[in-house]
C-alpha cells in the first residue's frame, strides 16, 4: 500500500471541475426527475462533443488491443493478447487498409523459432502473452508484452523491436531485447503486466503497468534500449484501495500539456458476466498525481468513468489510444459473450476531458 499522503486538486495544477449532470428537462421538469430518481450522470456537459464509433468489420476477435493509427493512406494495426492455439500464444497482429473499418489477421509477433525462450523459465506455466503495447521512437518500433498466469503476480514484461510494422516489408521482424521489469510473489506488492508507454516533455520514456495487487505503477525507461533506467523504482499512480484492487491496463496519453491515465476497472474475461469499465484522470506531471474531474486522486479510488456496459456491449476495457482513437475489447451480448474489437474517435470537452460515448448512446 502507498504511504504517500493525499493531495488536493491544486497540487495537480488545476482546480477540481465537476462534469455535467444530464436530466430530461429543465426547471420544474428537471426537479421532478430528480425526485423520481431519474438523474443521470454524464461524462460531458450539454452541447459538448461526443465520440464517433467506427463501424468495423472483418476479423475483430481481439483482446487487449494495442492500436496504431496510420497516417493518411497508411495501414492501421492492432496487436492483441495471444491464444496458445495460434502462434504459440504470441501477440496477434491485425491490419486495416481502409482507415480502421475492415480488419484481417496477418500473423503473430513470433513463432517457435523466434519466441523469447527465457520467458518460459521466468514464468513457469505461461501459455500466452498478454496486453501488448506498440511504441515508435527514432525509427524503431518497440513491442512490449506481458507474461503471467491467472491469479499470480509472478510476471514479466518483455520487449522486442522491429524497424517496421509492415509485415510485408523485407526488413520486418521482431528481435528479442529481453526483460524490462518483473514481479515476484516473495518480493513484489504489484503485478508486472499490461505495459503502456509515454514520453514526457523532455523526451524521457516511462512505462505504466500493473494489475490488482498494489495497483497501477510507473517506472522510468531509457532510449534507445527501451529498457528500465538504472535505479528506477515504481511510483504508484492508481489504486482502488480494496482487497481485490480491481484495476489494470493503464495507458497514458499526453495532450495539450496534460497526461491522461486511462485504466480498466472491475472484472474482465468473464463473457457476459464481465463488469469491466474504463476510467480516466489527468495530471500535469507524468508521474502524477492523477485526478478526476471532481478532484479525486486516482491513488485513492478516483477516476471518471469513461465507458461501461451498455446494451450488448458488455465490459469494455483493455484499452489503448492512438491518433485520438480509443480501442477496447468488449463481450458481445448478441453473440454469446464473444470478445470483439471496438474503436472510437474520442470527443474532447472545452476544458480538456475525453468523451467516449457517442451522441446516440448519450441520447438513449
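^ Assign residues to that structure.
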Amino acid at each position: 500500500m502507498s504511504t504517500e499522503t493525499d493531495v488536493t486538486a491544486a497540487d495537480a495544477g488545476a482546480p477540481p471541475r465537476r462534469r455535467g449532470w444530464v436530466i430530461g428537462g429543465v426547471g420544474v421538469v428537471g426537479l421532478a426527475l430528480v425526485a423520481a430518481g431519474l438523474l443521470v450522470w454524464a461524462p460531458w456537459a450539454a452541447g459538448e462533443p461526443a465520440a464517433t464509433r467506427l463501424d468495423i468489420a472483418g476479423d475483430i476477435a481481439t483482446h487487449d488491443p494495442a492500436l496504431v493509427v496510420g497516417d493518411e493512406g497508411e495501414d492501421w494495426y492492432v496487436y492483441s493478447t495471444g491464444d496458445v492455439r495460434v502462434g504459440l500464444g504470441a501477440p496477434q497482429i491485425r491490419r486495416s487498409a481502409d482507415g480502421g473499418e475492415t480488419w484481417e489477421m496477418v500473423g503473430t509477433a513470433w513463432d517457435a523459432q523466434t519466441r523469447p525462450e527465457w520467458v518460459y523459465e521466468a514464468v513457469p506455466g505461461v501459455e500466452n502473452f498478454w496486453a501488448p503495447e506498440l511504441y515508435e521512437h527514432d525509427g524503431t518500433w518497440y513491442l512490449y508484452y506481458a507474461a503471467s498466469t491467472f491469479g499470480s503476480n509472478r510476471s514479466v514484461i518483455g520487449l522486442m523491436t522491429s524497424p517496421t510494422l509492415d509485415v510485408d516489408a523485407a526488413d520486418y521482424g521482431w528481435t528479442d531485447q529481453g526483460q524490462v521489469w518483473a514481479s515476484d510473489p516473495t518480493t513484489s506488492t504489484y503485478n508486472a503486466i499490461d505495459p503502456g508507454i509515454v514520453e514526457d516533455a523532455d523526451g524521457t520514456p516511462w512505462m505504466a503497468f500493473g494489475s490488482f495487487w498494489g495497483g497501477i505503477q510507473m517506472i522510468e525507461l531509457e532510449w534507445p534500449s527501451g529498457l528500465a533506467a538504472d535505479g528506477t523504482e515504481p511510483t504508484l499512480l492508481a489504486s482502488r484501495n480494496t482487497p481485490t484492487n480491481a484495476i489494470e491496463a493503464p495507458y497514458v496519453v499526453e495532450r495539450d500539456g496534460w497526461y491522461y491515465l486511462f485504466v480498466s476497472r472491475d472484472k474482465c474475461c468473464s463473457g457476459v458476466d464481465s463488469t469491466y469499465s474504463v476510467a480516466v484522470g489527468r495530471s500535469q506531471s507524468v508521474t502524477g498525481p492523477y485526478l478526476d474531474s471532481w478532484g479525486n486522486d486516482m491513488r485513492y479510488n478516483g477516476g471518471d468513468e469513461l465507458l461501461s456496459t451498455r446494451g450488448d456491449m458488455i465490459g469494455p476495457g483493455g484499452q489503448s489510444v492512438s491518433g485520438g482513437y480509443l480501442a477496447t475489447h468488449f463481450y458481445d451480448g448478441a453473440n454469446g459473450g464473444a470478445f470483439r474489437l471496438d474503436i472510437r474517435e474520442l470527443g474532447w470537452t472545452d476544458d480538456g476531458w475525453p468523451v467516449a460515448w457517442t451522441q446516440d448512446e448519450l441520447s438513449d
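Residues 27-35 form the longest helix (9 residues).
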